[in-house]
Amino acid sequence: MYLSYNLWWHPLAKFPGPKVAAIAPFFAMKHWMGGDNLWKIKELHEKYGSVVRIAPNQLSFCSSASWKDIHGHKPGRKAFLKGSWYEAFPEDPYQIVSVSDPGHHAAMRKSLSHGFSSSALTSQEDRVHHFIDLLLHQIENRFIKAPGDMSKWFNYVTFDVIGELAFGESFGCVESGQPHYWIEILFGSIKNTNFVRSFEYAPLLRYILRIALHLKLLPRKVYDLRAKMANYANEKLRRRLDNPPPRIDFLQRMISEREEWTGQAFEELQMQATLLTVAGSETTATALCGISYYLCRDSRVYQKLTNEIRTAFSSMDQITGRATDQLPYLKAVIEEGLRLYPPIAAGLPRISPGEVVDGHFVPKGAIVNVNPWVAGHIETNFHDAFSFTPERWLDPDCKDDKAASQPFLLGSRVCLGRHLAMLELRLILSKILFRFDMKLMDDDLDWVKANKNYVFWEKPALPIQFSRVEGSL
C-alpha cells in the first residue's frame, strides 16, 4: 500500500523520475551514501528534464530560475526553510548553518557579519599573507625535487588561516607539515555525518536513528571522538576569550554581546567557531584543488593566467588583495573552477511552503534542492559544459546561463565568508603562480572522477610538481 501510494497518489506523483526513486527512499540513500549522488542526479536530469523526483518526497531542480525561487527573496512569496537534514546530531546547540527560523538566523548573521566586513578583511589580510608565505616556503623546500600532494597542503593553509580567525590561533599545519588531529577527526566524521543525513530520506528510519542518538546507542567511538573534538575546541576558545587578538576576527562582535560566556551560551559559541572553521577552510581548499587541477590540465588557460599574473606584478610584495582584484582573467578562472568543482557540490535542500519553483507548483512539505555541480554541468545552462573555459565569464555575448552557477548560494543565506574565500583564492593562486610553475605528475589523471561526494568532497591525492620561475623572488 505504501509503495502504491508513493507511486500513484503522493502529491509529487506527477513529477518525472525513475519509479524506483518514487516508491521508496532506498534509491536516494544508496547513491547518497555511495558518494556518487552528483553523477546519478545529472544522469536523471539529462533523461527527465529540469525537475526530477529523486525520492518519495524530494525534487531536484537544475535551472537558474530554481535557484532564485528556492533561495531568493521575493515580496509576497513564502520562504523555503531548512529542515531536519541540517541537524545531523539534533542535541547539538544551534549554529548558523542548522538554524531554520529566519529571525534567529538573521540575528546570528548580524552578530557574525562584522567579522566578514570590508574593514575586517583589511585587518585580516596580513595573516592570510603570513600563512601563504609559509606555504611558499614549504613548496620551495619540499616540492621542487619531489611532487607534493596539494590536496593535503591546501587544506593545511586554509585551516591555519581560518583557525586563527575563528579561534584566535592557527593549527600549525603548514609549519609542521602535518595535519592536526582535530582536523583528522573532522574529516573522519564526514562519512558518519553523511550516513546520518541519508536517513532524512526515510522518516521512520530517521526516527529510530534519533532515538539511538539520544540514548547513545551508536558505537562508543562516535561519542568519544565528538567529545575529544569539543574539548579541544573549548580549550582554544577559552584562550581566545582570555586573550583577545589585536585584529577583527569572526567572533568579535558576538563575543562583545555578553560579559560572560558560560553554559549553553558558551556551547553555542564553540559550535559557531567549529562550524566556521570547517566551512571556511575545507571549501576554500577544495576550490584550490579543483582550480589547480583544471589549470594543470589546460596549457592554454595556464599560460594565459600566468602571463596575466607575471605581467601585473614584478615582485611578491605587490601581490595584494586589492591588486589581485584587478586581474579579470584570474577572477574568470576562479569562477570557472567553482562552476566545474563547487565546494558544496550536492546543494543545500529546503522545505517547500507550497510555492512555485521554475514554473512547477511544489506542495507544502516537499523537499527541494538545486545541486550546484549538476546545474554547472547541464548543457542547457552551459555550452560545452565540461570544458574549462574561463572566457565564458568575460564575454558579454556568451549565451550561457551564468546565474545557474551559484557556489556561494544567494539571497539571505548567501555564504558569509565568500569575500574572504575569494581573497584567499586570488592571493594563493597569484603568489604560487608568480613564483612557481605547476605540473601534474600524471598527465592522464582523471582526478575529479576519482572523487566521491559526501556533502564535502572526499578528495584523492593531487600530486603536483613545482619548478621555480626565474627572477620571481
Task: Please explain how this structure is put together.
- The protein has a single domain (86-339, 386-468), classed as Cytochrome p450.
- The protein contains 19 helices and eleven strands.
- The chain has helices spanning 2-9, 19-23, 26-34, 37-48, 64-71, 102-113, 118-142, 150-167, 173-176, 181-198, 203-214, 220-242, 252-256, 263-297, 299-312, 321-324, 328-340, 372-377, 418-435, and strands spanning 51-55, 58-61, 148-149, 350-351, 355-357, 360-362, 367-370, 436-440, 452-454, 456-458, 463-468.
- The model has no long low-confidence stretch (mean pLDDT 89).
Q: What's a concise summary of this model?
A:
53% of the residues lie in helices and 8% in strands. It is α+β, with helices and mostly antiparallel strands and 473 residues long.
CATH topology grouping: Cytochrome p450
Q: Give the number of DSSP strands.
A: 11
Which strand order do you get reading across the main beta sheet?
Answer: 1-2-7-4
> Class, according to the CATH hierarchy?
Mainly Alpha
Q: What is the number of helical segments per DSSP (H or I, 4+ residues)?
A: 19
Question: What is the second-level CATH architecture?
Answer: Orthogonal Bundle
Taken from the alpha-carbon principal axes, the silhouette is: globular
According to CATH, the homologous superfamily is Cytochrome P450
Poorly predicted regions:
none
Give the proportion of residues in helices: 40-55%
Terminal residue distance:
72 Å
Strand-and-helix sequence, N→C?
HHHHEEHHHEHHHHHHHHHHEEEEHHEEEE
